[in-house]
Design a protein that fits this description.
Blueprint: H1 2-17, H2 25-56, H3 60-84, H4 99-114, H5 116-121, H6 124-128, H7 132-140
Helix pairs in contact: 1-2, 1-4, 2-3, 3-4
Amino acid sequence: MTPFIIYARAVGIYCLLTLPAITLPIMYLVSVTYVLIYGWFAWALFTIIYFITVFCNPNFLSKMSILFVGVVIAVAMSFQMLEILKAEYTVWHSGAFLLFPLAAIVSGWISLYTSRVKIKAANRNLLLSIPDNQLNSLYEN
């Protein structure tokens, strides 16, 4: 659930960060539409990276570093999907259009930073632990 919350918050932050582009309403609407359509690729990849860090259970600083790099990788992959799925051509040569993935990365970082307490609490042992009441019922049978 945490990766989805991070993603949803990042989308909202992205919409606010790119609000100055509203001076060209079509550009802003296309940008937000692309985030809503192609952002799911970023969410899926980030979720995989997140769960790898949970199950490998590195120290908190390493976990956050991996996740911050994961945001960059996920956004880059999602941005590349625009070209792969033929929504846009040569997306990495788009000039000012490259400010939008930069805004997405910054949005992801802000969202990730605000979730740091929840991320710190998530670890492999927490996910695999069995509540005591269920453990007692296993022994009684």
